[in-house]
UniProtKB/TrEMBL annotation:
The lineage of its organism: Bacteria, Pseudomonadati, Pseudomonadota, Alphaproteobacteria, Rhodospirillales. Belongs to the LysR transcriptional regulatory family. Keywords: DNA-binding, Transcription, Transcription regulation. It comes from the Bacteria. This is LysR family transcriptional regulator. SUPFAM superfamilies: Periplasmic binding protein-like II, Winged helix' DNA-binding domain. The keyword NADP does not apply. GO terms for molecular function: DNA-binding transcription factor activity; transcription cis-regulatory region binding. It comes from Thalassospira profundimaris.
Length: 294
């Protein structure tokens, strides 16, 4: 079990096949097959189910892949740390859906132009899942929404820098009466992402008076901000999103907008993480930010 074998295993798992993995790795299929067979023999467990031409991970394979990802990511981080010259290698970035849509296109393009030898891997998840991925070394950096009191982080240790300030707004049906408080809302359903989303948590807190009153609130989980908008326009649920995302949609006239609060998006990383690739990404990101630096 070495770094090369783990890399072969990860590629086969992602491509779900020997032939495509061999092409990406620059190897012959028989060599890839032998590597996988030797790895399974060493571990003493089947990592794949063979279904015609597909290689599907077994439960044991899923578990092993998680560890393989961490080991490979740590190995690359170690190499970059002991040879800190110019940005190279892979930078794994996680971000919220809203940040990817409204904030990252420009900085990512600028970074790729400046440092073409760095491979950027971008994934989207809610904030809590992003923090977990950072701690487990599955991500190198993440853009997360952090409320001003930060209570939800608990004792988790992460470094973070504020980059973007987002204005959250409530979306209501166009025919809904104007509101001043959460109690004025006539709809008891909220369209939101899955648990772990900071904006969902803040919406639930606001709608229940931050725990001061009970509310019969139905959560309608959706997979996109466009779906949230549609639910609100149809009168099926209210929703909450950053105004920067709403502006991207270009919709007017179908919903009523009520300002809610401001929440900062931070660039988060593990304590001490400071590779050249990350430093350059941080600097480009801060140049695009809208929070004044002291």
């Amino acid at each position: 079990m070495d770094i090369t074998t783990l890399s072969v295993f990860r590629t086969v798992a992602k491509e779900q096949g020997i032939t495509r993995a061999a092409e990406l790795l620059g190897r012959v299929p028989s060599n890839v097959t032998t590597r996988i067979q030797q790895l399974e023999a060493e571990i003493g467990a089947s990592l794949f189910l063979r279904e015609k031409k597909r290689m599907i991970l077994t439960p044991e394979g899923h578990t092993f892949l998680d560890y393989a990802e961490r080991i490979l990511n740590l190995a690359e981080e170690a190499q970059q740390r002991v040879n800190p010259t110019t940005p190279v290698g892979t930078l794994r970035i996680g971000a919220m859906e809203s940040t990817v849509a409204s904030r990252l296109p420009g900085p990512l393009a600028a970074y790729s132009r400046a440092w073409p030898r760095v491979k950027l891997e971008l994934t989207t998840s809610p904030t809590r899942q992003l923090v977990s991925a950072l701690e487990e070394h599955r991500l190198d950096a993440a853009l997360i929404a952090v409320p001003s009191d930060e209570w939800w982080l608990g004792d988790r240790e992460i470094d973070k820098i504020p980059v973007y300030r987002e204005e959250l707004v409530v979306l209501l049906p166009k025919t809904h009466r104007d509101i001043d408080h959460a109690q004025d809302i006539d709809i008891n359903a909220l369209a939101a992402f899955a648990p772990g989303c900071t904006y969902r948590m803040l919406a639930e807190e606001w709608l229940t008076g931050f725990g001061t009153r009970k509310a019969q609130l139905a959560i309608q989980e959706v997979g996109s901000y466009h779906a949230m908008y549609a639910c609100s326009a149809a009168g099926a649920a209210i929703s909450i999103m950053p105004r920067s995302v709403l502006d991207l949609m270009g919709h007017t006239g179908d919903v009523k907008i009520h300002p809610l609060m401001a929440v900062d998006t931070h660039l988060a990383s593990r304590p001490g993480y400071n590779t050249p690739a990350f430093r350059e990404f941080r600097d480009i990101l801060l140049e695009s930010g809208n929070i004044p630096t002291s």
